[in-house]
Specification:
By secondary structure, this protein is an alpha+beta fold. The chain contains three helices and twelve strands, in the order H-E-E-H-H-E-E-E-E-E-E-E-E-E-E.
């Protein structure tokens, strides 16, 4: 590419990046494009960290555009400056992503809606079916979120804890629950998979710390086979 055209392109790219980053931190909504048409949204201190990474990129572009042409005798010095800014930029980039995970986790607000509760015979426990919806605290309550269908075990007179631990749940994900009952010392969960699931997408999962044996039965399985999960150990296929 012609040096003049290259310089104009780098200056325009720098101006665009500065404007984009400045808008992102001022609006507290720094959006990064991701693969597959998705995006990652940063806000708060992770957004400012990403803005600093972006400024390192801008500095690299400007040094490349003007450094060697203004003072050709300092090409080596400019090369070291570019290398250091690249290292700093990548470091700040990954730091911003890590900080965003921490902040999103701490700012996440979850709500549980109990749908069904059945008693476990000869015990003081109940199995509770509920929907769980989580959103960032900065998102409006009306924000569309897909609820997760979950099953937990709590005391018969105990309310569902808001901070219930996910290692002790039956995760139904996108399955439709048809029936749940306690029979022969097992919790039978009868379900159907929703259509148009992505390839390899799992519709249910029993966490290893779930305290009861669970028999998962798929209504769409022509053999009507159930997958038995025993507490704290791998399951076995039951005919």
């Amino acid at each position: 590419m012609d040096i003049k055209k290259k310089r104009i392109l780098e200056v325009c790219a720098s101006a665009f990046l500065i404007a984009y980053g400045t808008y992102g931190v001022i609006a507290d909504d720094f959006v990064l494009p991701a693969r597959g048409g998705g995006s990652v949204t940063l806000y708060g201190y992770p957004a400012w960290t990403m803005y600093a990474a972006l400024l390192c990129l801008v500095g690299n572009l400007l040094v490349d555009a003007f450094g060697s042409s203004v003072r050709p005798n300092r090409v080596a010095l400019y090369g070291k400056a570019k290398a250091r800014m690249a290292i700093a930029g990548w470091g700040l980039f990954f730091l911003a992503l890590v900080l965003s995970l921490v902040k999103h986790s701490s700012d996440t607000v979850c709500e549980n809606t109990e749908l069904l509760r059945i008693g476990i015979t000869q015990t003081t426990y109940s199995a509770v079916v509920f929907n769980r919806v989580c959103r960032w605290s900065k998102e409006p309550v009306s924000a569309k979120n897909n609820p997760n269908l979950l099953i937990a075990v709590v005391g018969k007179d105990q309310k569902l804890p808001s901070d219930i631990h996910f290692s002790s749940l039956v995760w139904m994900n996108k399955a439709t629950l048809r029936k749940i009952m306690w029979l022969d010392g097992k919790l039978f969960v009868v379900y159907q998979d929703k259509k148009r699931l992505k390839d390899g997408e799992k519709t249910h999962q029993v966490r290893k710390e779930f305290p009861l044996p669970v028999m998962l039965v798929d209504l769409d399985d022509p053999a009507r086979k159930g997958l038995l999960y025993m507490p704290r150990e791998a399951g076995a296929r039951i005919n």
